[in-house]
């Protein structure tokens, strides 16, 4: 037998097994028509580079030999945000706070002002939880409607006295030069008056402007607007900013406000996500006047 056909599996002689190279030739060559010819290796396209976005790194890889390690400088690698993952405890606390905010928010929109005030009186932490959640929601909006209100008030005469109903953190009073009475259901600041928006301690005909910035909550909006009528001087203004989705029909809301002694002066329904309206007091309407109550749809936040 010729040496070319000797194979380690067939030949028991160690010397022969060491010297023969048949398997290597078979692996690298093909037998065609009795001849052994080298197989043409197909060039494979390097598709791995298509996922590399950094052009400098891609060029370095393209020039390097296949199978070799390539050293890439650290400053050429994309940097990842340096944010530590939240612990399970932090995630649970955040989830509980979010659930509690949504619950309080729903209660404020679906009850009367006096009932809403009791919620905060019975639970002293509820007001802070609500405003923490509210602040988080504001950060996700395309604009903050309070900024629009502040810009409008700054253009008014400096002797105008403003009433900020549902003031929250009283940012309006801190942003303008006017005298501002800041009112809300709970007072966490010395200059905020805690009261029901339908029954405030302010004197009759003492205000030039009443502001409701996302604060027409509750089911008794008639009582809120009649209180504004009592406090405003003749010709005084009511400025309202509200979420678009709360209005079923804008014209119906305008008619209800006008029945409380006001006339629509201006409306801006083009702002993204919010409606802005300005009314002027044209007549005195008693709070005891028989009038059907009205409300807007509640603004409920979904769980994310």
List keywords for this structure.
304 residues, alpha/beta, 7-stranded mixed sheet, two-stranded antiparallel sheet, 10 helices, 9 strands, globular
List the topology elements.
Layout (H helix, E strand, L loop, with lengths): L13 H6 L2 H7 E4 L2 E4 L16 H9 L24 H22 L3 H10 L3 H13 L6 H10 L6 E5 L5 H5 L3 E6 L7 E3 L12 E7 L7 H11 E12 L6 H9 L3 E7 L5 E8 L23
Can you walk me through this structure?
By secondary structure, this protein is of the alpha/beta class. Helix content is 34%, strand content 18%. It is built from ten helices and nine strands. It has helices at 14-19, 22-28, 55-63, 88-109, 113-122, 126-138, 145-154, 171-175, 221-231, 250-258, and strands at 29-32, 35-38, 161-165, 179-184, 192-194, 207-213, 232-243, 262-268, 274-281. It has a seven-stranded mixed beta sheet with strand order 5-4-3-6-7-9-8, with helices on both faces. Strands 1-2 form a two-stranded antiparallel ribbon. Strand 8 and strand 9 (274-281) form a beta hairpin. Helix 4 packs across helix 6 (126-138). The longest helix is centred in the first third of the chain and has 22 residues, at 88-109. The radius of gyration is 38 Å and the shape is globular. Mean pLDDT is 78; it is low at 1-20, 22-27 and 74-81.
